[in-house]
Design a protein that fits this description.
The complex is a heterodimer of chains A (about 700) and B (about 190).
Chain A: H1 2-25, H2 32-40, H3 54-62, H4 75-86, E1 97-100, H5 120-127, H6 142-146, E2 152-154, E3 161-163, H7 173-177, E4 183-186, H8 188-193, H9 204-208, H10 215-223, H11 227-235, H12 241-247, H13 251-254, H14 267-281, E5 296-300, H15 304-315, E6 319-323, H16 331-336, H17 344-355, E7 360-362, H18 373-378, E8 383-386, E9 392-393, E10 406-408, H19 409-414, E11 427-431, H20 435-446, E12 451-456, H21 467-476, E13 479-482, E14 484-492, E15 495-507, E16 516-519, E17 525-528, E18 531-534, E19 538-539, H22 543-549, E20 573-575, H23 578-581, H24 586-606, H25 661-669, E21 688-693, E22 700-706
Chain B: H1 3-13, H2 24-29, H3 34-63, H4 72-94, H5 96-102, H6 104-110, H7 113-125, H8 129-158, H9 169-184
Helix pairs in contact in B: 1-8, 3-4, 3-7, 3-8, 4-5, 4-6, 4-7, 7-8, 8-9
Classes of the chains: A alpha/beta (about 700), B mainly alpha (about 190).
The complex binds iron/sulfur cluster (2 copies).
One iron/sulfur cluster binds next to α9 and α10 of chain A.
Amino acid sequence: MITPIVLLTSIGFVAAVILGIAGRLFYVDEDPRIEAVANLLPGANCGGCGQAGCNATAEAIVQRRLEVNVCVVGGTETAEAIGTLLGYDVTGSEPKLACSTCEGGYRAARKYHYSGLQDCRAALQLYHGFIRCENGCLGLGSCFKACKFSAIRMDNVSGLPVFDPDRCVGCGSCIEACPKGIISLVGEKTKILHWNQYTQCLSPCRQRCPAQINIPKYLAHARRGEYGAALMTIKDNNPLPVATGRVCPELCATECRRTINDDPLAINPVKRFVSDWERSSGKRIPVSVAADTGYKIAVVGGGPSGLSAAYYLRRLGHQVEIFEKMPKLGGMPRYGIPDYRLSDEQLDWDIEGILELGITAHTNVTLGKDFTIQFLRNNGFDAVYLAIGAWFGRMIPLEGKELTGIYSGIDYLRRFHTDEEIIQGKRFVVIGAGNVAMDCARSALRAGASSVLLIFRFSRDLMEANAHEITDAENEGVIMRCLVSPVRFIGENGRLTGIEVQEVTLRHSPTGGLPEVIPVEGSNEIVDCDVVIQAVGQAADLNDIIAADGLAKTRYSTIDADEDTLQTSLPGVFAGGDCYSGPRLMVEAIAAGRYAARSIHYYVTTGAIPPIEYRQREMMAPAMIDSLVNVIPTPTSAIKPVIPVEDRMGTFREVEGTITEQQCQQEANRCLNCGIYCYDQDDLPRDQTRIARSCPNEPHIVEKEEMALPN
Amino acid sequence: MDLFYLAISATFVNNILLAQYLGNCPFLGVSKRIETAAGMAAAIIFVTILSAVFTWAVLVYMLRPYGLEFLQTLTFILIIASLVQFVEIILKKKSKVLYDALGVYLALITTNCAVLGVVLLVARKELAFIEMLVFSSTSAVGYALALLLFAGHRERLQISAIPRSMQGTAIALVTAGIMSLAFIGFRGMAN
Ligand code: SF4
Ligand code: SF4
């Protein structure tokens, strides 16, 4: 009896000693919370969460790469237990739900029958998918078969998957089963971090919008009268809808598929309507903010780009502080856009919405003078976003440039919004033909100028300003002379009295780009004037920052940053907006802000910024459809009301009004709900309305519902 | 005994999994994807060979000389459990990815009847050292082979049209049964 006991005990003892030694030798310094979390997980190792096993999941949860509710087996109890252990609120963790962006139109009726093949992946490999749509849903339901939680059903009418948000646990099996990449897991964070890809089914308008707003989706909401949902869809990509609703040049509309038949959709007026709808209600729709991550980010510059970056970083759960050199936030839209296009109160509504999320703003502090990037680092900021804009107005170095009475466009406009004295004069000459030039010319007329002459050295079709800005300026009395170039400034006693100009002709440039300008001999003339505004370009003023922090710049005097990450030469310092790209549109600055937020989020949380595969940069050529079937031409009725010219002078009253609710709905109803290849072909009879339903994130146009019309 | 026949017998004819039905839980649990199945197979091969060596030494030099063979099962479980712990400690340090991928299945090997089955068979057949090495390694390879083949089938099954009531474990068990029949076909090639 003694021997077996001695033997077993000694084997056990030897094993214990060896394990003890091994434990010391191969000791892994591991966060004890990882083990604790692993113990709370059910240990099923099902891989449903997409991780390599429960241990890997536990590690990811502790490092906050995954939400506490990621486990598909554990359910709410497990999530709450882990949340309690790690000390954060489970309610703050965002649920992720599967949804498809493919809205399919009426494909089911034309569904191709693959003989014997009942799986999307096999069909794709053999026949390259659906007979008409090479990008959209094939409708054979592999996602439906892959879902272990019965959260998908195939809609008989549309042939599209319909997702049940109550059953979906966000496991992602459907995404793996879909060969077309049209299903995605969407939570608030996903939406913020997502960037359009060539593999997605994107409508042409959505491809063209620099901010990548899901336009068909918000139009679908708007036509059903769900203005709040429409606005939230816009805010997923653009936190300044009131401002952009007024000043955006509407690039999306230039690609609207409706143009094949009639007028492009008035996309931006619908945006303006829904954002004004919220503003006039006085009550803001709450926006979700993720649980605090503990990272601190400094945003330098409170313009559109800085504000957007701050907004999205805050929504991702980071602490954000904005540093702005001007007395108020808003950047160029505040100091460069006249009140008759965008007033301070309107811009303030957008900005307050951003700050209310819990963002601190410091104004009247200039980077390079009052503080440095190093200072921010020393004060615990984990990353810095530079969005300092392009505040330096370029001047043409002509003879007489030192005379009093010559200003840059931005210098002229800024004074309307600060305490500085407004530049007065009677006869104005404006050089340039961009939006800033139009703003200067139109502001000068309102401020009491008796004549405003705008000169431009290229032909009219090369004017950069929005077409309707040019016509408005002309209607208000701005005289425009194209193919005229300035030669020198003339003055007396140090004051400007006139400008010598010269006519030019253009010659096609062999290298492409802008044509060559050839002066016409003997065409010189002198134009009397007392103020010249030069709206010929802007640049960023980087000297102080470079001296203080050694930031690299490009030869165009913009900040040098990586195109794919926006990271500058200093690690952890990012740059975007006008100071990186040169002066661009407001909506492009907003897009840059969200893009920077993506990079910064990955940088602080994981240390590496993953590249975006198949990032959509250009319009997708195959999306070009050159004729529409079954679509009755219906011209737009969303013409914005404008005040008469007589009422404009002497005041900065808003010129264009917002469309009415009825116009908004009528216009949204004209949307064809385009996919990359498809569009909703059946024009709606008047007694039917489209119903968007089923997915919490993306409306699926699954059926048309009869609506009894009053007789 | 001819080593070649021993190897063929252990791998195919008396396949530990499909002919002797040992180690079924990981067979069903980790066979959904070839990648995980491969990780598990590697771990099983490693642990089986290591356990066989240690248990053989303990059996030959301790239990048999003192007539304590009745303690076999108890001792072997103790040894296998310690070995798995040992492997786990080292894997965690040296190959975190593999460790994470194996997750809870690594611990499951501790109670894996295939491993215990192999070492008990070694004891019952009273194999010499070289024979023990060949037998344990080929048995483990047989296990790995069955696991990988099965994982391949299951990947295919996932994209096949299967009646809803038969999906998942049901069709997996039917497939396992048919595979087992196929392996029985090797009967007679060696003992
Ligand atoms: S719908 Fe997709 S993500 Fe949701 S539970 Fe089903 S397979 Fe998982
Ligand atoms: S019709 Fe609608 S979805 Fe199609 S391009 Fe125009 S706005 Fe976009």
